[in-house]
Each structure stands twice: as C-alpha cells, then as structure tokens.
Amino acid sequence: FNDSGKNLLVTSLPFLVLRTLPSIKDRIRRRCKSTARLEGKVVIVTGANTGIGKETARDLAQRGARVIIACRDIAKAEAAASEIRAETGNQQVIVRKLDLADTKSIREFAEKFLAEEKELHILINNAGVMLCPYSKTADGFEMHLGVNHLGHFLLTFLLLERLKQCAPARIVNVSSLAHHGGRIRFHDLHGEKSYNRGLAYCHSKLANVLFTRELARRLQGTKVTANVLHPGSVYSELVRHSFVMTWLWKIFSFFLKTPCEGAQTSIYCAVAEELDSVTGQYFSDCQPAYVSPRGRDDETAKKLWSVSCELLGIQWD
C-alpha cells in the first residue's frame, strides 16, 4: 500500500474481518477448554466494561481470580462489575479508572494499583478504538496509535516489575487480523501528513504484534510471557465510529462471533496450561495463527520500541 492509503479502499477493512467469519461448527469447537482455577491470582483487564473485555473478565472471575476492570467510563464499568459479581458470586471484581488516551491517567492508575495490590499475575491489554475520525489523545498522539499501542505500552512498562515479582505471569495483547493491512509509518506516526481511519487502525494493530514480539524477546528468562491474538470478527460496539461497518455488522450479525465467543482466545492465552512457557506467539481461535511478514520484522519491532519510549519519555532497556 502507498502512504496515502489510496490502494486500500474503505471496504478493505470489512473484507479483512468478514473473510474470517466463523461457521457454527467453529464456534462450538474453538472455545477455551482449560479448566484452570485462578484463586489467589490477580488479573487486570483493560476495557472490560463491554464486549470481549467484559466476557473475559466474567470468565476469569468465574475461575476465582481477583479481577480489576480498568476502564475510562466508570459508570459502565461499575454496571459490568456488579453484573459479574452477581452472576459468578465472586465479590473480588473491582473497578478502577483508566483512560488510555491520557498518560497522566495511566500513571495514576498504575500508582494506585501498585499501592493497593501486592500481586499481579495476568495483564490483559484488551481496550481499543477503531475507525475513529481524526483526533489526538491528551498527549498529542494520533488516537489509534495512542490508545491501542502507546497507552498499553506505557501501562505494561509501569506494571512489569510487579508481574516479574509474581512470576510465572502472563501479558496478553489483543490485536487483530487487520494487522495484515498495517505498516509502521515512522515518518508520519500521528497521521498529520495523511490520514485514513481504516489504515490507522491497521497500523495500530500491527504495532500490537510488534510490541509483543519485542517484549517477549526482552522477557526471556523472567517467567513472564507475552502473547498476542486476533479475537475474530465479533459483534460489538467497537465499530460504532463507522456507518459502513455498523451496517455490515448488522447484515452479517448471524455469522459474527458473540462477545463471549470472541473472548475465548484471550481467555485461552491467559489460562491455558499448555502455554505456560509459550511466548511471543500470535493466536486466533485458540490456536497459533499466521503473522504477516511486517509483523515478523525484528528491526521494525526494535525501532518501534525505541520510538515509543521516546514519545512517552521513558527509558525501558
């Protein structure tokens, strides 16, 4: 694709996700089969007030974990937490404020979490935005890059020592099949020269894959693993910024995964016993999946790491 995105039509992102529409057979077969219990484990799930994040939190709470729902919309998060507590009987479902579009909020969340919680075993970087009209975060980052990549990059950095202290521990990053359409445009990371919201989403999802790859490399020997996943084509609120995608989602809703089905690979990466020592991998439908060539570019991953640290004003060696 050229930088202007003229070779990627508006309909190409829907094509990327609709081509993976699951069959009914797949929905039944490709569920997380692990029966692992999580009593005594502490989990953070970002964006868990709705969609696959909420279903992930629900499942982990059912397994006995202490679940921190980290969200920007506190009212929706409290409603989700109340529902999960009532359904699972697990009263250890806690809501904390986290706005990934504001590094000040991310730092405040991490500071409060580290003061209140002595352990962290699973970090699920689930929250995300998709197909937003051009806008910037509180720190001046393009919204998709800022929320989907840089926000979770900073959050992971701030919490990593606690994860290491509690190892074995896991970091799970939610990406997308759309990473196949992405590239890291270092000369225009914030879309100020040209902007296509479909491409911006793809770029940010590629950043998730590259971040996970480099993070896993750096964490070798720590017993903290990092894996990334595509949840599938899920009927959720994520497409609310696009009339075309909202329309397509309604037409094809029967073929789309429910949020519960979409959460299965996140849950699998968080709890499956066979993944205890697996790291740096990309999953879809609870099994390893193909990563685009750009998603396997180690030099780009290292450069993105360096640039991300510079943008966030952190030193992460």
From TrEMBL:
**Catalytic reaction equation(s):** all-trans-retinol + NADP(+) = all-trans-retinal + NADPH + H(+)
EC top class, as a word: oxidoreductase
Q: Which GO terms describe its molecular function?
A: all-trans-retinol dehydrogenase (NADP+) activity
Coiled-coil residues: none
Q: In which pathway does it act?
A: Cofactor metabolism; retinol metabolism
EC number per UniProt: 1.1.1.300
Residue ranges annotated as transmembrane are: none
* Keywords assigned: Lipid metabolism, NADP, Oxidoreductase
Which Pfam families did the record assign?
A: adh_short
Does the keyword field hold Oxidoreductase?
yes
The UniProt family comment states: Belongs to the short-chain dehydrogenases/reductases (SDR) family.
Identification of the protein by name:
NADP-retinol dehydrogenase
Gene responsible for this protein? LOC111930091
